[in-house]
Amino acid sequence: MSSETHRTGKENVPKNPRVLCLHGFRTSGRILRALISKWPETILRNLDLDFLDGPFPATGKSDVERFFDPPYYEWYQAGKGFTEYRNFEECLAYVEDYMIKNGPFDGLLGFSQGAFLSAAIPGMQEEGTALTKVAKVKFLVIISGAKIPGLVFGQPKAAVGAFSSPVRCPSLHFIGERDFLKTDGEVLAESFVEPVVIYHSSGHTIPKLEAKAEETVLSFFQRIRQMLSDESSSVRSLM
């Protein structure tokens, strides 16, 4: 999962996409890394993945306590039926600061709460309400995602306009047939221009990739690598 630009004679091999990975509610970057590491090496060897912990310690019981040791983290908190949000702006500032100090990053990968956040970031950047000090996110990988539930109540305010128009950011969506967020995940995918959607038979989890899904993921990242290579060539031509 490392990133380099290799030179073979005069030929430049595109660098691996750098991906900031945002874990689920009351889990951790370490836990997400452990789950993603089960994906085929054919995929992982061509990605530079960075797993970030949420800014806030878990404020309650974690659903993964039986499987993974603490600590657990949250990105932000919601209350009163998603009509109130706490620490959302602080979360955005935390992610932006990490991206400034450790980037640049090309894309985001998010699971569950991390997917809610990741999916809203391109629209928030477009609206100028968040992550304005870093480059725009070039692609997304959304696993068990949905639109932030509070958006129907106009909360959190920074994300209200995130889906006001179709999101023109290449996106790969994993939707579980037995996931309680299946319908919400489909609605989210429809908010993007030409989303790539992979259905799997499991629930609210990081899916194992069968042969067909692996082929789809490889094709998606091949397109991303070509896009990044074309952008790099355009920049060099201007220098």
CATH superfamily: Alpha/Beta hydrolase fold, catalytic domain
Give the total of domains. Answer: 1
Radius of gyration: 17 Å
Estimate the global geometry from the Cα principal axes. globular
What do these coordinates show?
This protein has a single domain, classed as Rossmann fold (3-Layer(aba) Sandwich), CATH 3.40.50. It has helices spanning 29-36, 41-44, 88-102, 113-127, 182-190, 211-237, and strands at residues 6-8, 11-13, 18-22, 48-52, 56-57, 73-74, 77-79, 84-86, 107-111, 139-143, 171-176, 196-200. It is built from 6 helices and 12 strands. The longest helix is centred in the C-terminal third of the chain and has 27 residues, at 211-237. The two termini are 30 Å apart. It has a 6-stranded parallel beta sheet, sandwiched between helices. The protein is globular and about 50 Å long. Mean pLDDT is 93; it is low at 2-11. The relative contact order is 0.14. By secondary structure, the protein is of the alpha/beta class.
What's the short version?
The chain is of the alpha/beta class and 239 residues long. The chain contains six helices and twelve strands. The two termini are 30 Å apart.
Primary descriptors:
alpha/beta, Rossmann fold, 12 strands, 239 residues, globular
Describe the secondary structure blueprint for this structure:
Blueprint: E1 6-8, E2 11-13, E3 18-22, H1 29-36, H2 41-44, E4 48-52, E5 56-57, E6 73-74, E7 77-79, E8 84-86, H3 88-102, E9 107-111, H4 113-127, E10 139-143, E11 171-176, H5 182-190, E12 196-200, H6 211-237
Parallel strand pairs: 3-4, 3-9, 9-10, 10-11, 11-12
Antiparallel strand pairs: 1-2, 5-6, 7-8
